[in-house]
Design a protein that fits this description.
Blueprint (H helix, E strand, L loop, with lengths): L4 E2 H11 L7 H13 L15 E2 L1 H14 L5 H15 L2 H5 L9 E2 L7 E5 L21 E5 L3 H7 L18 E4 H15 L5 H10 L3 H6 L3 E2 L10
Antiparallel strand pairs: 1-2, 3-7, 4-5, 4-6
Length: 231
């Protein structure tokens, strides 16, 4: 059965991750509500009086949105970026969350799971000569292996094959190191919900992928029930 989280559980985990002071929790909740008003992630805006149930996919999307908030981007711009680029990057999430002792649970087995999400922010885009268009954000967020990071920073060939990126600058990059970010997130979630295991979360991140993204991984995750896997 898929994991279901309440809004209170989601807020508690994200507040803990970002070390939000107790007397600032109301202000932090207002930030989360702003994304909810923007209907992000999908399914979070259920209308007045209706309880929101968060899946792991929704929870992880919101966690990434708050990470981008930390670099000073507006909620509207963050939503554009994540909606347009999520399918390009989401396949790296179940890979990065794989405990190293269990790389063989992928068929064929993986040899590493160190990835970074790389973003060239452009918060002044609305003032630029060319103006701002939603499609400009496509390809702005990319995922690369950690081993290729230096090359991509120096050469600047980050992007989506067959797509000419029209935003950002190669010399201006924000990087989220995926594995430590996700395991920090997962660790706090398991403190708030001790009934949830790493296997449950791992499985849900994989099963939430769309068919094209899952097929694009060129490998399948093969795990049974809760077999005691720990990060």
């Amino acid at each position: 059965m898929s994991i279901e989280l309440t809004y209170a559980e989601v807020e508690a985990v994200l507040a803990g991750l970002h070390h939000i002071a107790d007397d600032k929790r109301v202000a932090f909740k207002a930030r989360l509500k702003h994304f909810q008003r923007l209907k992000f992630p999908d399914g979070s805006n259920t209308g007045t009086g209706k309880r929101v149930v968060y899946t792991i996919d929704m929870f992880v999307k919101l966690a990434f949105a708050i990470e981008l908030t930390q670099i000073g981007m507006s909620p509207k711009r963050i939503v554009h970026i994540l909606r347009l680029n999520w399918e390009l990057c989401a396949g790296s999430i179940p890979l990065a969350i794989t405990p190293r002792a269990h790389f063989d649970k992928w068929q064929p087995p993986i040899s590493h799971n160190n990835y970074v999400w790389m973003l060239s922010p452009e918060s002044l885009r609305d003032l630029a000569e060319g103006g701002e268009d939603d499609l400009d954000y496509y390809g702005l967020l990319t995922v690369i292996p950690m081993a290729d990071l230096e090359h991509n920073l120096l050469v600047g060939d980050v992007g989506v094959e067959g797509w000419e990126r029209d935003m950002g600058a190669d010399y201006r990059q924000t990087i989220i190191v995926l594995r430590p970010f996700l395991f920090s997130l997962v660790g706090l979630l398991m403190e708030v919900r001790p009934d949830i295991s790493i296997v449950d979360i791992w499985r849900d991140t994989y099963e939430s992928l769309s068919d094209p993204v899952r097929n694009g991984l060129d490998r399948k995750l093969v795990i049974g029930g809760n077999n005691g896997i720990n990060p």
